[in-house]
């Protein structure tokens, strides 16, 4: 494969993105236009790790979690398994927070850890990005319920629970990133 770079190879995350693309068609044909729109949103999100060149494990976990969350909603798994909604909010929000912080670092909106970030600052920033993601997710659920499909489950208790578990997931992601990041921070190396 002379002259081929990693960017041109099919990566495991691309398999997940292909599954999302198939879901746009299958979900749309089975459940209608709102389902197709949901999977198009998931596809847009699943493209972010590829565009940022993030590590394969994060790429696959991120896209798979978004895909699972969408199918679980359409197939009413959240109604069948009472704790699944909170688990998905925690895991997906944590992954959104991780990808979001890495996107901010790569685009130089925030300073990378190699520039002197302390672990606590990284945890707080990741948690804040996740909190924003959780709020936007809940606004999306409300908008979906209000304007698209009144079967989307919303309500005070659901929203507060989703936000709480999303925040916990974002905090956990911040801790993981702070612990696993490269030991390039000269303040931490002392």
From TrEMBL:
Bilayer-crossing regions: 20-44, 56-74, 86-105, 117-140, 160-180
UniProt KW keywords: Membrane, Transmembrane, Transmembrane helix
Alphabetical list of Pfam families matching this protein: DUF2238
Full protein name: Uncharacterized protein
Naturally occurring in which organism (per UniProt): Promicromonospora kroppenstedtii
Taxonomic lineage of the native organism: Bacteria, Bacillati, Actinomycetota, Actinomycetes, Micrococcales
